[in-house]
Design goal:
With 496 residues, the chain is mostly helical. It has 23 helices and two strands.
Length: 496
């Protein structure tokens, strides 16, 4: 077996990798080709240069090591679990019941859409969330006369906000959790409260931004068949197994299992349960069983997304192998050190400066390029900073997570969920323009990044518990704007 090619770490090798990665970002932003084709071609080019020129960028063996199986398997397993649950009708049922609670108030209807989407997205990835919720939002818009954008855009913003709160809610968080060794519970502890505040602000801002559109809405009626649970027994088993998966996430400090392990166990158990329940009532045929694992594997697991991740890891691996990541990290370290010396910052002040810098740079860049490749490239840079700075350096990971996820709301191409919703609307003949999305999304991004800045400062100077209490106070203050009381069988909103 021939020896592995050692990577060259000269400036030319680093420059080649940098040009390839920047080209990937540019092509992803321009959407001139499918993103899997773009990253696949980029990796092929890196290998072509590696094996046919003096510049060794990333060998096949190094590429193999660069692929993060934890991320790939976690995403595939959660997609499979959601795919089985989808067959039970539970998502449509939940949305319809929530809409009925609006009492005919368009403002309350918008708030319910935001809260339901945000909470669901914390536990189901945001692309899957918008795929489930969009058909109901479109039906609600048609039934009430509210313009689709006034419901669909707050919905997709809420999906990206809610996904920020947990390890599995947004793909960048999965990457960060795996790269930094952060547990499911750590995300809940540190990010859930600021995200709840942001969702509350999203309701407040959206109701004012779309005041005229929702003011003309009327009490709508949803189709009755949308609220039918088609497989109640499978749903009960599915919810129980999903709960066990989350127990596995939370008990990581005790078991040492990476997040992909309980997810994969749960997916296998749920697929097996679905198959056994099917065979209790149906005759097995020689043809492909569309009810079970083949259907889930072919239709519900997003193989293009998983392939994109795999090739992306290889491209980032080239940046690591050639020393490009170290060069970038040293540059960022020098900038932070210059800020510390120039401003006379303490250890905590230096972390605040670094955290705010990472937050806003991540937010701005993630609005222009897909936040997944951005985070994949940035993780090794932050890891180096964490190893060289003093104090509570974990805040740098939260700054990266917040900046990448919140910045994705800035434009129509900032997050995969944005592109998905615009595509679904176009397919239905309801065009949402890039400008319309950006005008609303960029305002929400600026507001939420400001909230995240305050969170980082509070985390460093006050501590986690007071930050949590401050968040609860903020929610309590917001509560006055959406408090609902039932009087005479009607739901009325009390002014805040």
């Amino acid at each position: 077996m021939p020896p592995e090619l050692a990577a060259t770490q000269d400036p030319i090798s680093q420059a080649i990798v940098a040009v390839v990665i920047v080209g990937v970002f540019a092509l992803l932003a321009l959407e001139k080709a499918h993103r899997v084709l773009i990253i696949f071609a980029a990796v092929a080019l890196l290998w072509l240069i590696t094996y046919l020129t003096p510049y060794r960028l990333v060998s096949f063996e190094a590429a193999h090591r660069a692929i993060d199986l934890n991320v790939i398997l976690l995403l595939a397993s959660m997609m499979a679990i959601v795919g089985v649950l989808k067959t039970t009708g539970v998502f449509g049922y939940a949305v319809v019941r929530l809409m009925e609670r609006s009492g005919g108030s368009p403002g309350t209807l918008l708030a319910l859409v935001i809260w339901f989407t945000g909470i669901l997205s914390a536990f189901v990835d945001n692309v899957t969330t918008v795929i489930f919720v969009y058909p109901m939002v479109a039906a609600i818009a048609g039934a009430t006369g509210i313009p689709l954008a006034a419901l669909a855009l707050p919905m997709v913003i809420a999906s990206n906000l809610g996904g920020t709160a947990t390890l599995i809610g947004d793909p960048p968080n999965i990457l960060i959790g795996s790269g930094a060794g952060l547990s499911f519970g750590a995300f809940i502890e540190n990010l859930t409260m600021p995200v709840l505040i942001m969702l509350a602000v999203c309701v407040w801002f959206s109701r004012r931004y779309y005041r005229e559109q929702i003011a003309h809405g009327t009490a709508g009626k949803l189709p009755a068949d949308a609220a039918v649970i088609t497989q109640p027994l499978l749903l009960r088993w599915g919810l129980a197994i999903t709960a066990l998966v989350f127990v596995g996430f939370f008990t990581h400090p005790l078991t040492g299992m990476p997040a992909a392990v309980p997810a994969a166990i749960g997916a296998a158990l749920l697929l097996l349960t679905q198959d056994l329940l099917y065979l209790r009532t149906q005759q097995e045929s020689h043809e492909e069983r569309i009810h079970g694992i083949l259907n889930v594997i072919e239709r519900d697991i997003e193989w293009p997304t998983l392939a994109f991740f795999a090739f992306l890891f290889i491209a980032v691996g080239a940046a690591v192998e050639t020393g490009l990541i170290d060069t970038m990290a040293r540059g960022l370290e020098r900038f932070i050190e210059a800020g510390r010396a120039g401003l006379g910052l303490s250890v905590t002040g230096t972390l605040l400066f670094a955290g705010i810098l990472i937050l806003w740079v991540s937010g701005l860049l993630s609005a222009l390029i897909d936040n997944i490749p951005y985070v994949a490239v940035t993780i090794p840079v932050i890891a180096r900073l964490v190893g060289h700075l003093q104090g509570d350096t974990e805040i740098l990971w939260w700054a990266l997570a917040l900046g990448a996820c919140l910045g994705g709301n800035g434009t129509a191409i900032g997050a995969s969920a944005n592109v998905t919703v615009i595509g679904l609307a176009d397919r239905a003949g309801q065009h949402i323009s890039f400008r319309e999305f950006t005008r609303y999304g960029s305002a929400m991004t600026a507001i939420t990044l400001l909230i995240a800045t305050l969170f980082i400062a509070a985390h460093l100077y006050v501590g986690k518990l007071p930050t949590l209490l401050g968040g609860m106070t903020g929610l309590a203050l917001y509560g006055g704007t959406r408090l609902m009381r039932r009087r005479g069988g009607r739901v009325r909103e009390q002014p805040g």
